Amino acid sequence: MMASWFRIQAIFFKELIQLKRDRMTFGMVIMIPLVQLMLFGYAINTNIREIPVAVVDQSQTSLSRVLIQTVRATQVVKFEREFQDIKSAEDALKRSEIRAVLIIPHDLGQRVARHPSSGFGSYASSDEETSRPIAQWVVDGADTAIAATIKSLRNMPLTELVSVKPANRNTPTFEVTLFYNPEQRTAVNIVPGLIGIILTMTMIMFTSAAIVREREQGNMEMLITTPIRSIEIMLGKIIPYIFIGLIQVFIILGLGYVLFDVPINGGVWSLLAITLLFISASLTLGLIISTIAKNQLQSMQMTIFVLLPSILLSGFMFPYEGMPVAAQYIAEAFPATHFMRLIRGVVLKDLEFTELTFDIYWLALFTLFGLIFASIRFKKNLG
Amino acid sequence: MTHTREPEYVIKARHLTRNFGELKAIDDLDINVEKSRIYGFLGPNGCGKTTAIRMLTGLLTPTSGEIEVLGLRLPQDADKLRFHIGYMTQKFSLYNDLTVRENLQFIAKIYGVTGKTQKHRIAELLSIYGLDQKQTQLAGSMSGGQRQRLALAAATLHKPELLFLDEPTSAVDPENRREFWEQLFDLCNQGTSILVSTHYMDEAERCHQLAILEDGVKRADGTPQELMNNMAAHVIEIESSDLRQLKQALVQMPEVITASQLGARLRVLVHNTVNDPIGFISQNSNVNRESINITRPSLEDVFVTCTGNSRQ
Ligand SMILES: Nc1ncnc2c1ncn2[C@@H]1O[C@H](COP(=O)(O)OP(=O)(O)OP(=O)(O)O)[C@@H](O)[C@H]1O
Ligand SMILES: [Mg+2]
Predict the structure, then answer these.
(1) What is the pLDDT of residue A147?
(2) Which ligand ends up closest to the CA of B25?
C-alpha cells in the first residue's frame, strides 16, 4: 500500500517537473482560459444588433423617412446603403455587403392608412386592401440567427409613424418573468459554460498524449520492467492535471465575476465537488484515448474527434432540448453535457450538488469505469 | 528465490520462439545463464538480440517455448520478477527533460527506495558512475557516454540480482567502454548476474560465456576460448604483393569462408574439411609456402565463420 503510494507520487512529481520545464504547455494552461474567456465573453452575443442593411425607398416621402428612423431606433439594424432599384440592392445582398434590404413601396401612405395598428379604423372592405404589410424586408437567410432577428421586426409597433395616440395598445397574452438572468446578458450563461468547454479541451488534450508520448520516446519500455502497476501510472498522470484544471476554473470564474459581473450563487463546496468530478472524467477520457492511439498524431486526431461533438452537443451553444432525440442520446454520452447542467445549476441557480444527483452519478461512474478500462487496455506488455 | 543446483542458472530458456507475422525473429533458442556470470549475446543488426531480451524480461510474450528466470516462470510471473531484475534498454529510456538526480530519484521511488536510504544510494551511484558533477544537468543534454552511465546507474539502483543490458556501449568511445566494463565486473563480483548484448568483438571477448545469434538462430554457444578452439575453420595469413587479386581468386573457392585484407596481409578462413590449408592455398595461388602462416583464431573469425554461410 505504502509502496503503491510512493510509485504514484513518483509519477506525479515527474509529471509536475516535466510540465514546469515545458514552458509552452505551462503557458497554455493560463492562456487558454484567459483568451477564450475574452473571446467568448465579448464576441459571442446572442442579442444581435446593428445588422448592416440597405434601403430602397420607392416612396420618397416624409412618411418613409420617419419609417426608416423608427426602424433605425430599434438598433437592430444599421442602414449602410441606399439603392434606387431593387436589382442593385439584391446584388449587394449577394455580395454580402449587407444582410437585408428594406423595400418601401410607392403607396406607403395608403398602406399605413389601412394598417390596423394605425388605428384609423377603416374596416376591411376587402381583405386584399386592409391586410397588406406596409413595407418588405428581403433577407439573406443563410444565417438563421440574423434572419430570425429581422423576422422579429415583423410586428414592430407603428406608433411613431402615425401621430395619433394608439387606441389599441397590445396587452400581452403572457407575462414573462425571467429568473437567474433577468437582464438577459449572454455572458451570464456563457461564462459557466465556458468552464466546461475549456476543461474539456485542455484536460482531454493533456492526457490524450500522456501514454503515447512515453511509448514513442521509449520511456515505457523502461517503466514496464519496473514494479509499477497500470493503475498507478494512470493515477499519477491524472492527479497533477486536476490541480491545473482547478487553476483554470479559478481564472474563469474570477475573471467572469470581475469583467462580466457573472454572479456565483452556489456554494463553493458544491462548485469544487462538481468541477473535480468533471476534471477527473475528462482526464479519464483523455487517458482512454491515450491507450488506444498508436502515436501522438493519432491521439490528436481522436481528441478532436471527441472534442467537437462534445462541445457542440453539450448545450453550450445550442440548447440541449432543441436537439433531435438521437443527438440528445449522443450528447448524454459526453461528460461535458452533464457538467454543463451541473455548473449552470450551481453557479446561476444556487443548486446544491445533492439536487443534481443524476449528473453527479453519471460523471462519477464514467470516471471509475473509464479508469478501469484504461488500466486494462494499458497492458504492461509490449505484445 | 533461487534453488541450489550445480551449476546454478539464473536464466533457462527452452525452444524460445517469437514470430512477427511471417518473420521468425527468434527461432527455437535454448540458453542457460549461470549465476554471477556475464553472458553475452553477439550478433549483427536485426538478429533478434533485443527481441530475446524483451522475452526474458517478460516484456514480450513468446510465440512458444519456456522461460524460467530466477526460478520464476515467464510470462506468468512477470510481475514478481520485476523487483529482482534491472533492464537497460538499447535506446535511452530515462526522461530527457529531467536532471540526472531527478531521474534517479524517480527510479528510487518507483522501487520504494525512500528517505535516507534513497539519499545514500543516489550519492553512492553518482560517485561510482562519475556523475557527481552532472547531478543538475538535464539527461537530454548529456553526451552519449554519460547518458549510458546514468542508465546503468538507474538500472542497478535497486541492486537487482540479474541485469539485462541491451547494447549498453553503442554510443561510448573505447576508453569509456573499458571503464564501463570494469564497472560490470565489479557488479559481477558482488554477485550480480549480467546478460549483455553487443556487436563489438572486444566486448564479446570479455564475457564469461557467449551466444552468437544470427537471424534469430543461435549459431554457437560457449566461453570465448571454447568458441575459438572449436572453430570449424583454419585461419591463414598470407603475405603477398597483389592482395586484391589474390582475394578475388580465393573467395571463389567453396572451401574458403572469407578473405579480408589487413594492411599488407590477407587473412583467409579456410573450412576445416581441408587438411593441409597451407598446401591448399599455395596450390590454388602462386604464393610460395613461406609467405603463408597459420595463426590463432580471433573471436571475429569465429563470428564470421558462424554467421558467414547465409551471407554469401
Ligand atoms: N514489434 C515488432 N514488429 C515486427 N517486427 C519486429 C518487431 N520487433 C522486432 N522486429 C523484427 O525482428 C527482428 C529482430 O529485431 P531485434 O530488434 O530483436 O534485433 P536486434 O538484434 O536487437 O538488432 P539491433 O542490433 O539493430 O538492435 C528484426 O528483423 C526486426 O525487424
Ligand atoms: Mg536491438
Answers:
(1) 85
(2) 1
Give CATH for domain B9-228. 3.40.50.300
Q: Model ipTM?
A: 0.83
Of the residues B26, B83, B97, the best mutation for testing chain A's interface (the one with the most A CB atoms within 10 Å of its CB) is B97
Digit-coded pLDDT (tens) for A229-270: 988 998 898 899 999 999 998 888 888 888 877 777 777 788
What pTM was computed for the model? 0.81
- B53-79 per-residue burial string, b: 16 or more CB within 10 A, e: under 16: bbbbbbbbebeebebbbbebebbebbe
**Whether the Cβ atoms of residue B207 and residue B227 lie closer than 8 Å to each other:** no
CA B50 to ligand 1 center in whole angstroms: 7
Q: How far apart are CA A156 and CA A134, in angstroms?
A: 11
Instruction: Give B118's contacts (C-beta < 8 A, 6+ positions apart).
Output: B105, B108, B109
Task: List CB contacts of A187: < 8 A, sequence separation 6 or more.
Answer: A41, A256, A260, A261, A262
What is the residue with the minimal CA distance to atom 29 of ligand 1? Answer: B46
Ligand 1: distance of its center to the CA of B49 in Å? 8
Q: How many CB atoms lie within 10 A of CB A134?
A: 23
Structural domains of chain A, with CATH: 51-179 (3.40.1710), 186-377 (no CATH)
Q: Quickly count: other Cβ atoms within 10 Å of residue A91's Cβ.
A: 11
Task: Please write the tens of the pLDDT for every residue from B212-271.
Answer: 999 999 998 999 898 888 888 888 888 888 888 888 888 888 888 888 888 888 888 888
> Ligand 1: residues whose CB is within 6 Å?
B 20, 23, 25, 43, 45-51, 90
Atom 11 of ligand 1, nearest CA residue:
B25
Handedness of CA A148, A151, A155, A159 (dihedral sign): positive
Mutate to test the pocket of ligand 1, among B22, B23, B198 (most ligand atoms within 8 A of CB): B23
The Cα–Cα gap between A377 and A138 comes to: 58
Strand ranges in B83-208 using DSSP code E only, listed in sequence order: 85-88, 162-166, 193-198
CB neighbour class for A2 (10 Å; exposed up to 12, middle 13-18, buried from 19): exposed
- Using alpha carbons, list the distances in angstroms from residue B227 to A71, B42, B304: 101, 12, 12
Counting from 1 in the atom list of ligand 1, the atom nearest the Cα of A382 is 1
Q: For residue B82, give the nearest of A219, A226, A381 by CB distance.
A: A226
| Minimum distance, in Å, between the CA of residue A291 and any CA atom of chain B | 17
Euclidean distance between CA atoms B290 and B287, whole angstroms: 8
Q: Which of A18, A224, A380 sits opposite B95 (nearest CB)?
A: A18
At B6, which amino acid appears?
Answer: E
- How far, in whole angstroms, is CA B305 from its chain's centroid? 18
Coil, helix or strand at residue B151: helix
Topology classification of domain B232-296: Alpha-Beta Plaits (3.30.70)
**Out of A17, A228, A382, whose CB is closest to B110?**
A228
User: What count of other Cβ atoms lies within 10 Å of the Cβ of residue B90?
Assistant: 16
- Measured distance CA(A252)–CA(A195) in Å, rounded: 7
CA–CA min distance A307, chain B (Å) = 29
List chain B domain ranges: 9-228, 232-296
